[in-house]
Amino acid sequence: MLKKGKSAALFEIGGGFEHWAERRLRYLMLAPAVVILLALTIFPSLYMFYAAVHRISPNPELPWQFVGTANFARLFSDGQFHVALRNTAVFTIIAVSLEFALGLGLALLLDKYIRRLTFLKTVLMIPMMLPPIAVAITWKLIYEPQFGVLNEIMYRLGLPTQAWAGDVDLAMLSIIVADVWQWTPFIFLLMLAGLASLPVEPYEAAELDGASSWRQFWDLTIPFLKPVIAIALLLRVMDALRLFDLVFILTGGGPADRTKVLSLYIYQVAYRFADPGYAAAISLFVLFVTLILSTWFMKRMRLVE
Amino acid sequence: MLRKLCLALAVTASTLAMGASAWADITILVPSGSEGDGLRAAAADYAKLKGTKVEIVQAPYANVFEQGANAGATKSGVFDIILMDDPWIPFFAENGHLEELTTYFKNAGLEGPDDDFLSKSRAICRNPYNEGPYVCLPYVGNAQMFFYDAAKFKEVGVESPETWDDVLKAAKALTEQGGGRYFGYVFRGGQGNPVVADFMPIFWSYGADMFDEGRTKVTIDTPEGAEAMKMFMALRDVSPKGVESYNANEVGTAMAAGTAASSINWPNWVATFEDPSQSRMVGKISYSPIPDGTEPGSSEIGHWTMGIMSAAKNKQEAFDFMLWATSPEQIKISAERGNPPVRRSVFTDPEMTKQEKFRHYPVLMEAIEASTPRPRHPKWPEIENAFGIELSKAVAGTIKPEEALKNSQAAVEQISGLK
């Protein structure tokens, strides 16, 4: 009897634990992900805020010095930061616009006229699948002034050869072309998926009403695609603001600072000039600008109320 | 059962991963390329000989500085030795990342590196330069030399270029004859380190310098600086299109392919120029010290030096390895592996000098002995960046050369805090 009672108590304890575990199972299952998120995202972000208000010496014997908003104030007087900001803006506007125009154009073309050519669609997506470093090195070889294929073609056509990435007037354009080559397929892919999901009925009605193709494009296709366009542009703008690989490999920010972008400058300040406090302040500025732009953009495209 | 097995595997893998970084007695951070490869080979020999476990961590040039600075700032002790480019020495030494070697030498019964090391090779390893205590030992004896195609220079009436005026005269004629496919001169015009590295020897050859002797004043924007800049711009005008983005590879390739007649370059390119599988110019390139300007020419020294990190876990073992690796026998082996030596006995060893691939040794030894270090300042990377931007603008023609000097003066004054 005693034995029976003891095992019953144990069962109750076990049952209690099982019940406890069952009630909290969702939290237990989420815990590893939350811990990883805290360690890899939340903590570094908070640490960045902390670093941004300190002057951090590369000498480990010197304590971190609290400087308040001094690192942010420095943004207003730092000429190199202004150059990087301007170059990033120019790159983002031109590159993303070209990628959007070409990506949408290609998607319309393939959707309407060559729908069955899946092979062609796959080929068009290859640049997007390549690692950015491989793309940068490939374009570096293409642009090489003395031995590059581009100048060889120019020479054979009797046209003047160019320094491309080494020319102050062509360096940014060279980077934009390489970026457009790699990321147009991304826009193309999203637009193609968007076009494939469009309803047929409104187009049939428009046809019956005698609407031209152009009218159908502006009044039906674009409004229907609006959410896809918004997402595609948003992702590309956010990515363009973080451009690093192409610039690092192709030009190193030169010539004459013409291609220095924010990510490259942050890298230089943090690692070459050993000033992580100021680098954190610039990074926060970029984060802030990205957030503002994204929110404004999503509201404008009516993705959020 | 399966779950238990997975758990056991995970624990074993984690333990192994954590232990992996601690298996070595000495961990050395080295750059990619011949310098790092040489030390890697030496470390393998040392491990076989002494039974010491030596781990080599190899990274691209810029990353060696970053990883070293990070390890120093965090006192991680992950590296015992760092193979440093000499302009980094003030940064590492003055920020407390490097161990002073005085006590180690004393314990080994030595006063310092012996006299067989070239005097400039020893001077570079003291901080401040040539005066302070030793903070590293020289390993690779890099100093710039002037490389030129003697036959081409002779064709246009310059037997051997003694001065920058001689170089310009020959380069101008050769570029004019080249029709846009051959050039008399080529240099590293890429923004930052490349353009600064190829400008400094010309700067010094005209009596200019970045700081005054006691590092109390910035002296870039001076009449001597202007003279040097004038010559640099004249040389730019006879260089290939796109030189604004050139780094060592582009310059080396142009010389090896025979599309440029002359350049300043580092001695490790000799191996490439003399290798038939990589060069069309085997046996055709001559080497000389840096030409004179208004003052005797001076090479930029670019030694690779070994220092012990302050937070190193095995400092004595690290020092023992450094002494062994820089012994005459090991420096000779290192030279055979393609790294320029730092010892007089190796430079003058008949076994070496009789070999065609080492015919540049007398010139290189002369170049090292007449070399100048890059301005020794703990903020050198930032100074070099600022100076490199202005030089790049001048090379690209977006600002006038005199503006570049004025802007550089202001930028370096601001960074260094010297007015």
TrEMBL record, chain A:
Which residue range or ranges hold the ABC transmembrane type-1 domain?
85-297
Task: Tell me any Pfam family this protein matches.
Answer: BPD_transp_1
The cellular location(s) given in this protein's UniProt record come to: Cell membrane
Q: Which UniProt keywords apply?
A: Cell membrane, Membrane, Sugar transport, Transmembrane, Transmembrane helix, Transport
Q: Is Transport given among the entry's keywords?
A: yes
The annotated topology with respect to the bilayer is: Multi-pass membrane protein
Primary site of residence: membrane
Transmembrane portions of the chain: 27-50, 89-110, 122-142, 180-200, 220-238, 278-298
The record's family statement is:
Belongs to the binding-protein-dependent transport system permease family.
Q: What is this protein called?
A: Multiple sugar transport system permease protein
Q: In which organism is this protein found?
A: Sinorhizobium kostiense
From TrEMBL, chain B:
Q: Which residues form the signal peptide?
A: 1-24
Q: Does the entry feature the keyword Transmembrane, yes or no?
A: no
The record's keywords, sorted A to Z, are: Periplasm, Signal, Sugar transport, Transport
Q: What does the UniProt entry say about where the protein is found?
A: Periplasm
Keyword Transport assigned to the entry: answer is: yes
Task: Supply the Pfam families for this chain.
Answer: SBP_bac_1
| InterPro entries on file | Bact_solute-bd_prot1 (IPR050490), SBP (IPR006059)
Family according to the record: Belongs to the bacterial solute-binding protein 1 family.
Protein name in the entry: Multiple sugar transport system substrate-binding protein
